[in-house]
Amino acid sequence: MTKYIFVTGGVVSSIGKGITTASLGRLLRNRGFSVAPMKLDPYINVDAGTMNPFQHGEVFVTEDGAETDLDLGHYERFMDVHCTRGSSVTTGKVYRAVIDAERRGDYLGGTVQVIPHVTNEIKRAIQALAEEQQADVVIAEIGGTVGDIESLPFLEAIRQMRTDHGIDNTMYVHVTLVPTVGPWGEVKTKPTQHSVERLRAIGIAPDVLICRSEVPLPHDVREKISLFCGVPPRAVIESMTVPTIYEVPLVYEESGLGEFVVDRLRLTPHPVNLSEWSDIVDTIKNPRHRVRVAVVGKYTSNGDAYKSIAEALGHAGIPNDCEVEIEWIESDSLENGRSPAEILHGVDALVVAPGFGARGIEGKIEAIKFAREMGMPFLGICLGLQMAVIEFARNVCGLEGATSEETYPVIHLLPEQKTVSEKGGSMRLGSYPCNLVNGTLAAKLYGETRIGERHRHRYEVNNDYREKLQHHGMVISGVSPDYRLVEMIEVPSHPFFIATQAHPEFRSRPNRPHPLFQGLVAAAVNSRMVGAA
Fold first, then answer.
1. Nearest-10 Cα torsion for 503, 509, 515, 519
2. Which of 238, 382, 434, 457 is an active site residue?
């Protein structure tokens, strides 16, 4: 029988529910349990696809093409699992399903209400994921903060789950803030008490409290929280800020959280294997090398807009025994008169990130031109590939023109993509296969010639220009199985110049860094060592 863990948050937003959920899943995965994570988001959008990156951060894409909240990226990276469309549930998705059912007459003319119809749909989605993935444990994070009006249907649904599945099969984890105030840094438990009180008022008594704090919690504070909030002392878990988020599972394990969860849910105890994760954390905290990688993008003022790229670069440092320092560069800054040489000074490698729209395009092209001419290791992602093709066509092949499809058709929309459909608009979404050419850098990095990567883009390389690009030294190193779509390009005369139409960052894991990022960081380390010599 599947067990269910529900993670809520109180006091303030952005308190760390996503990392808590991901870390808890890691504890269970270390014990050999299969885990299906999911996010219950209270916003009315059907999915995250239309959300502004400046406001919402990155849109994370699953294998089956769902556009989701960035927390699903944390789940995949920590637990080393693939989320699916069913792993993301929003108010918009729930209400659309309920309204569609009402229009079909499924409710036989009954009055459609939040309880039971909306809550039943939420519970159906949770249970459907458990069945789809045949999971030992489903861990569901509820977005927002307890007390938010839009979260109430989700909280009511998870309250009902205990009645439906029993106390031994359901567990509530509440993440809350324990601040320090005053000149002496006095630890205050009142915000946590009030948050738990609000949770209890809607019928949920937490089994575990994850207490976010900047200082260690004294024994008497833990006892006070236990007494006033009605949880066992061993279930009051101190959660301080640590040097790397990947250390959080180790901290939780040391605090006894993993053992408590197994006992509480009556799971069969399994040996705990922490060796791989401990080695990862040790390398992250004590690297031998250090490199600086510039990420040029359109949304760099929001640190979450390129979250998966930042994490993938960090993962790539692990096998290279290297700390990767990221220099975030807004592509607009390369269009206001400052030279790429000035902006990219002291940088060891360049990543050109994805984005939509014409803003900042010329800045990305200038950065790529500098990297190509100076021999700087370069990785282009999605729009980065398209800009690399335009830069090469313009500055190497000698083709003149602007960057739009109308006046410079090196990249274009395919005919079928010009018609916007309801699902995914005009974009390619989700995982697509790719064939790599033997002997290329791409094939060497991947170690195979048949791969699959996730996509989220509209424009493709125009095949009318393939021959001219290749004649001047660009290699089309990856194509779709029907040879119709360009998936990867590279320039063999350059030390490391490669770009992909896909989003490889979504598949990177700390224990399995993505080969493109790993190769980029290795090239950066080598370049720095050669420069130092």
1. 100
2. 382
- What separation in angstroms does the CA of 231 have from each of 165, 191, 226? 21, 16, 5
How do residues 440-456 score in pLDDT, each as one tens digit?
999 999 999 999 999 99
- 423 has pLDDT over 50: no
Tokens read off for 188 = 């205050």
412 is catalytic: no
The CA distance from 68 to 143, in Å, is 13
Out of 315, 455, 494, 503, pick the active-site residue: 503
Which three-class secondary structure state does DSSP give residue 213? strand
* Euclidean distance between CA atoms 237 and 332, whole angstroms: 44
- Contact yes or no for 365/387 (Cβ under 8 A): yes
Closest CA to 229 of 179, 156, 172: 172
- Distance between terminal CA atoms of the chain? 61
Q: Give 181-195 pLDDT, tens digit per residue.
A: 888 788 999 999 999
Separation CA 291–CA 323 (nearest Å): 6
Beta-carbon neighbour count of residue 181 at 10 Å? Answer: 9
DSSP at 110 = P
Residue 503 designated active-site = yes
Q: How far apart are CA 261 and CA 182, in angstroms?
A: 35
Is this structure's pTM higher than 0.85? Answer: yes
Encoded tokens for 423: 């699902």
**Rama region for 454: left / alpha / beta (φ>0; ψ in -120 to 50; rest):** beta
CA atoms within 13 A on the CB side of 187: 19
Residues in the chain: 533
400 is catalytic: no
Which amino acid is located at 425 in the chain?
Answer: G
Smallest CA-to-CA distance from 434 within 458, 451, 448 is with: 451
Q: Of residues 141, 323, 391, 505, which has the active-site annotation? A: 505
Output the pLDDT for position 417. Answer: 57
How far is Cα 131 from Cα 193, in angstroms, rounded to an integer? Answer: 36
Q: What residue type is assigned to position 416 of the chain?
A: E
